[in-house]
Amino acid sequence: MLAIRMRRVGAKKNPLFRVVVTESASSRDGRFVEALGYYNPRTKPETVKIDRDRLTHWLKAGARPSATVRTLVARHKLEAAAVAAESTAS
To answer: Whole-model pTM above 0.90?
Structure first.
């Protein structure tokens, strides 16, 4: 079964995560099918970049997102809507 989860990259004590599609049985930092984006929790505000089209494609193909990715995508969607609302209000 395919899973959409985060893969840790970056230096020691300086985490950077990639959002990837992988086999659910593979290790956290093991092989993956496709990288969908990244998440950097160390910046202010935190940086999230995910390819929505590819995410939708993999969800339709049956890949299951982890709880962390599900939360990250939902929170990022709300932030994107807020930024769009601010730009139209100005």
So the answer is: no
